[in-house]
């Protein structure tokens, strides 16, 4: 039976240490993108950030207007323990789809593949809503499928384009050149810019 991918499901995954998605470090593709951003005052959101090494990296690099949102209180408390110098106001406990805000940049990593497939169109619409005019969604998406039983749910470039094209100018959606070894050749890197 398919599990309901709610707060309990995700919080238990952290409590039980069932976090096979966790890289334990900043994703190299995201690090490379972050390293070339010049505007340090961008307002940045990492949805479904989990242990959010990228959030810690952003703050370390002087991006002091960067936030994560996650359903799991355990993930957030782990993040606080590991990053005591980052103020709580940057850690939002909640559901991405209910979140209200305005961001210049949203960074995706294994959140899109963690939500139920039926929410994919809504993800594109919600992400568009949360971005300022000209704002960007960047990050990584799986380029292969893993079936429908439990996350991660993968997909194809063609499928992703069907969700994002109505809302975004597709600047980049291509094989990631700097994935970690086990994900090499299995991920797309995207840079999508809000259309309106
Ligand atoms: C597969 S994990 C990825 C975590 C992190 N991005 C990483 O790469 O290590 C998916 C994360 O999304 C969170 N999540 C799932 N559904 C969510 C929702 N609707 N709103 C906010 N967070 C959600 C989970 O709690 C979990 O931390």
Automatic annotation (TrEMBL):
Pfam families: TPMT. Coiled coil: none annotated. One of its GO terms (molecular function) is S-adenosylmethionine-dependent methyltransferase activity. SUPFAM superfamilies: S-adenosyl-L-methionine-dependent methyltransferases (SSF53335). InterPro entries: SAM-dependent_MTases_sf (IPR029063), TPMT (IPR008854). The lineage of its organism: Bacteria, Pseudomonadati, Bacteroidota, Flavobacteriia, Flavobacteriales. This is SAM-dependent methyltransferase. The keyword Phosphoprotein applies. GO terms for biological process: methylation. Keywords: Methyltransferase, Phosphoprotein, S-adenosyl-L-methionine, Transferase.
């Amino acid at each position: 039976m398919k599990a309901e991918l709610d707060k309990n499901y995700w919080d238990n995954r952290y409590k039980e240490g069932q976090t096979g998605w966790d890289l334990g470090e900043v994703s190299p593709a995201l690090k490379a993108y972050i390293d070339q951003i010049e505007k340090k005052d961008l307002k940045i959101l990492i949805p479904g950030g989990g242990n959010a090494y990228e959030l810690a990296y952003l703050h370390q690099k002087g991006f002091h207007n960067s936030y994560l949102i996650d359903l799991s209180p355990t993930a957030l408390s782990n993040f606080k323990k590991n990053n005591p110098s980052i103020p709580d106001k940057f850690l939002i406990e909640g559901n991405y789809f209910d979140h209200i805000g305005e961001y210049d940049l949203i960074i995706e990593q294994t959140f899109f593949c963690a939500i139920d497939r039926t929410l994919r169109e809504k993800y594109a619409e919600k992400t568009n809503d949360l971005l300022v005019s000209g704002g960007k969604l960047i990050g990584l998406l799986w380029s292969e499928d893993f079936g429908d039983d439990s996350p991660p749910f993968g997909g194809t470039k063609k499928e992703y384009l069907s969700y994002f094209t109505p809302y975004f100018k597709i600047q980049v959606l291509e094989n990631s050149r700097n994935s970690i070894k086990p994900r090499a050749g299995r991920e797309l890197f995207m840079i999508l810019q809000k259309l309106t």
